[in-house]
Amino acid sequence: MSLPQQLISSLFDLTLTPFYTLSPLWALSLFSLLAGFLMLVIFRFTSNQPRIKETKNGIKAHVLELWLFRDDLRIMLSAQGRILRLNGRYLMLAIKPMLVLIVPMALILLSLEGWFGYRPLHPGEAAIVSMQVTDGETGLLESASIEANNGLTVETPSLKIPGAREVNWRIRADGLGIHNVSMDLLGRRLEKQVIVSQGLVRVSSSRLRSEFWQGLLHPSEPSIPPQSGIERIDIHYPARFIKVFHWNIHWLLYFFVVSTACAFGLKRMLRVEL
């Protein structure tokens, strides 16, 4: 895992742990507001604010010109052309701060996905465990077996899908805690973490062969050794939705709405031209 992602993940773990017993809505709202503030500050210091203000004022002036001279076709066409040109200039001025925003926002969203993209299993719930082997290793599927420690029960025999290079089992959560399932393929043994909890905790839905993607997407577990012949192991956790009044909303939609509203709400106070 890269150092920036490790620091961000540790910060999120430290900040979100106190929200364990609360509704996920409160924790997500806090980070959405902070993200909106962060986006506004980054935009402020990476953009040409005087030039943006000048461009926006020019657009407003030509829009007013359209209204005042709405009976003069020549003036209206000329004003529309200038508005299009100024809109193009505004987009060019916004490209630099938006490119700068991509990196921190991507790291934040990847960290939040582990907390809000899925929820842990509850006691009594079942989930599918999938293991996919690499190209040329489909023979390993015949010998694949699984074991679960206390707190989990393997409910079904293996279901092999050679065309997808995959084998599946169904497990049931019996007790709260951080548990493990162990897969064995001809003596090649790997473990995958399974979280059973009633509160807000981070879950790692996959363990991947790629060290880069594992560190970026699921930093709480190590990557799969390349020599194992296994491409990935997945726990199919239930999707988490954020309950707002009577609606269940995907966390990304809620995050972008709240963070954007926060940015626009604070722009006058912080004197930022958007």
Provide a quick synopsis of the model.
The protein has 274 residues and is of the alpha+beta class. 45% of the residues lie in helices and 22% in strands.
Largest sheet, in brief, is:
6 strands, antiparallel
Residue windows where pLDDT falls under 50 for at least 5 positions:
none
Chain-averaged pLDDT: 88
Derived from helix and strand composition plus strand pairing, the structural class reads alpha+beta
**Which value, in Å, is the CA radius of gyration?**
25 Å
Tally of distinct domains: 2
What coarse outline follows from CA principal-axis ratios? elongated
Outline the structure in words.
This protein has 274 residues and is an alpha+beta fold. Helix content is 45%, strand content 22%. It has six helices and eleven strands. Strand 4 (159-161) and strand 5 form a beta hairpin. The mean pLDDT is 88.
Salient structural properties:
alpha+beta; 6 helices; 22% strand; 274 residues; elongated; 6-stranded antiparallel β-sheet
Write the layout of secondary structure elements.
Layout: H1 3-16, H2 24-46, H3 49-68, H4 73-116, E1 126-133, E2 145-148, E3 152-154, E4 159-161, E5 166-173, E6 177-185, E7 188-196, E8 206-208, H5 211-217, E9 230-235, E10 241-244, E11 247-250, H6 251-266
Antiparallel strand pairs: 1-5, 1-9, 2-6, 3-5, 4-5, 6-7, 8-9, 10-11
Helix pairs in contact: 1-4, 2-4, 2-6, 3-4
